[in-house]
Amino acid sequence: MKIIRNNIIPFKGYKAMNLFGILFVRGDAVIGSVDINHESIHTAQMREMLYIFFYLWYGIEWLVRMVTCWDAHKAYRNIGFEKEAYTHEGDMGYLKGRRHYEWLRM
Questions:
Q1: What are phi and psi of 45, to 5 degrees?
Q2: Distance between CA 83 and CA 97 in Å, rounded?
Q3: How far apart are alpha carbons 28 and 13 in whole angstroms?
Q4: 13: in domain
Q5: Is residue 81 within 8 Å of 45, Cβ to Cβ?
Q6: What is the spatial distance between Cα 38 and Cα 87, in angstroms, rounded to a whole number?
Q7: Residues 68-73: what's their mean pLDDT?
Q8: Does the first or last residue of the chain, that is N or C, have fewer Cβ atoms within 10 Å of its Cβ?
Q9: ∠29-80-8 over CA atoms, to 5°?
Q10: Is residue 4 part of a domain?
């Protein structure tokens, strides 16, 4: 995974942002193997959804979850993509045996 450090993307308050498989990291942020594995899981999700559908689904699911709970952080943590990534971010071998569309089972 390519990592680009800068002070523009991601926005202040965020440590990293994965855009089309490229990880943008805030210049002063400490990023570890768990963070990279989390973002690698998102990259696998993006690939299987042909990137653009990942972002569409992600945005729509976040909006639906916002309407149901009115808490941005809770909505974010309940997105299927995030549930999969957070559940398996500590398992460095997860991507080797990951089934396609695993996030739908979360």
A1: -65, -45
A2: 17
A3: 11
A4: no
A5: yes
A6: 9
A7: 92
A8: N
A9: 25
A10: no
Our count of domains for the chain comes to 1
Q: Could you tell me how many residues make up the chain?
A: 106
Q: Is the torsion defined by CA of 96, 1, 56, 63 positive or negative? A: positive
d(CA 97, CA 11): 33
Rounded CA separation 79/46 (Å):
14
The 3 state secondary structure assigned to 34-96 is HHHHHHHHHHHHHHHCCCHHHHHHHHHHHHHHHHHHCCHHHHHHCCHHHHHHHHHCCCCCHHH
Is 62 inside any structural domain? Answer: yes
Radius of gyration of the chain, Cα coordinates, nearest whole angstrom: 14
Handedness of CA 64, 68, 70, 71 (dihedral sign): negative
The pLDDT tens digits of the residues spanning 11-68 come to 888 899 999 999 999 998 999 999 999 999 999 999 999 999 999 999 999 999 999 9
How do residues 79-102 score in pLDDT, each as one tens digit? 999 999 999 999 999 999 999 999
